[in-house]
Specification:
about 400 residues, alpha/beta, Lyase, Ornithine Decarboxylase, Chain A, domain 1, TIM Barrel, 2 domains, eight-stranded mixed β-sheet, eight-stranded parallel beta barrel, binds pyridoxal-5'-phosphate
């Protein structure tokens, strides 16, 4: 956008754009070193006080230039497959690499063994197919269980315990498998569950009760248990004391090592998406503005989850003009949300969305030929470092062969 230096330092919604953000090209993501370190310290404190091990689930946040902020506080990374496992091994050398994938592939498995330390299988049949190979390579082998304990309402897309779920092994599935293949039990070093999403420790406590009831006998034969992710530990108000009791309970009840692998919690409220207003319009009673960031491309969870991201200045406001913000793509539903503004925004105005470090930079896309927003880091001393330099080749390169 032209005239970067002429932009107002405050947004029409209210709130002041930090000076170091004012002169960079939009749209862009800004990761915040201080906030990342604050989260990491809190997670590290829980690990230290309980003796559990914290992993970073990379699918939520994998901007590896920032891994150094987490390194003192975590035991390793968690990956959803080969590429994330490789990234964890490359970018956190010397730390543990854990993998969970609902379906491993024979043509990748050997390479995966090269990077991973812990391999978690989703089903007895995957365990049967690959377990021995992992074991022979000296890996720690786990099974993801389904404790059949739904703790979230209305979010079937995020509920691995929903009826008919493909995620994890139910007790009935396990009992049936072990009748046919008793040798499966000897392959297992650990039990893994992942059933939470942005939840507090009361839901973890409920889940653990179900794990104990359905799988307690199995867990007590294991070396470790992994509580998965979805623990919103760094959210203000999260009940950390109860989490600590849960970890303690597992250690005492089953004499196992406890792993947690949050994703969101590491980078919660630790990033921004800066965008500029491209147009302001009105359709009957609806006041609209088009911005240069797209929900569909740059914040896909806004549509998938769905949720409305915080906007600087708008959320503290009770009175004001309601403006519906949407992206420049052709998708009618590319709407970020309705926000209260102190005054009508105008062309060129800067707007700043909060909590934009998670499930964004690792999940965006170039639908409509939208450019990928560059990623910046605001360092602890408020200086800005540009981490990426995306351009047309990032769009074209994933669509075909000719350069
Ligand atoms: C998604 C996921 C995580 C991380 O979840 P968050 O909600 O980001 O904390 C951890 N483990 C597994 C197996 C996952 O699928």
């Amino acid at each position: 956008m032209e005239g970067l230096d002429k932009r107002a330092p405050f947004t029409a919604a209210g709130g002041i754009i930090p000076p170091e953000f004012r002169n960079i090209k939009t749209p862009c993501y800004i990761l915040d070193e201080k906030a990342l370190i604050k989260n990491a310290k809190l997670l590290g404190k829980v690990a230290k006080e309980t003796g559990c091990k914290m992993l970073l689930a990379q699918k939520a946040f994998s901007n590896y230039d920032c891994y150094r902020f987490f390194e003192p506080y975590l035991a390793g990374t968690e990956a959803s497959g080969l590429f994330e496992a490789r990234l964890g091994a490359e970018e956190m050398p010397g730390k543990e690499v854990h993998v969970f994938c609902a379906g491993y592939r024979a043509d990748e498995f050997e390479e995966l063994l090269h990077y991973a330390d812990h391999i978690v299988f989703n089903s007895p049949s995957q365990l049967l197919r690959f377990g021995l190979m992992a074991k022979k390579a000296g890996k720690s082998v786990g099974l993801r269980i389904n404790p059949e304990c739904s703790t979230q309402e209305g979010h079937a897309i995020y509920d691995p315990c929903a009826p008919g779920s493909r995620m994890g092994t139910t007790r009935a599935q396990w009992d049936e498998a072990i009748l046919k293949n008793p040798e499966l039990l000897d392959l297992l070093d650990g039990i893994h569950f992942h059933t939470l999403c942005e939840q507090d420790s009361d839901d973890l406590e409920k889940t653990l009760a179900s794990v104990k009831k359905k799988f307690g006998d199995l867990v007590s034969r294991m070396k470790w248990i992994n509580f998965g992710g979805g623990h919103h530990i760094t959210r203000p108000g999260y009940d950390i004391e109860r989490l600590k009791r849960c970890i303690q309970m597992a250690k005492e009840e089953w004499n196992v090592e406890v792993y947690l692998e949050p994703g969101e919690a590491w980078a919660l409220n630790a990033g921004f998406l800066l965008t500029s207003v491209l147009d302001v319009l009105k359709n009957a009673e609806t006041q609209l503005a088009i911005v240069d960031a797209s929900a569909a491309c740059h914040m896909p969870d806004v549509l998938e989850m769905p949720y409305r991201p915080p906007l600087l200045g708008a959320d503290e406001r009770e009175e004001g003009i309601t403006v519906r913000l949407g992206g420049p793509t052709c998708l009618s539903g590319d709407v970020i949300g309705d926000y209260k503004f102190g005054q009508l925004p105008k062309y060129g105005d800067l707007l700043m969305f909060g909590d934009m470090a998670i499930y964004t930079t690792c999940k965006n896309n170039t639908f409509n030929g939208m450019p990928l927003p560059d990623i910046w880091l605001r360092q602890a001393d408020n200086t800005m470092v540009q981490l990426t330099d995306f351009d047309y080749t990032d769009f074209k390169g994933r669509l075909g062969r000719r350069r």
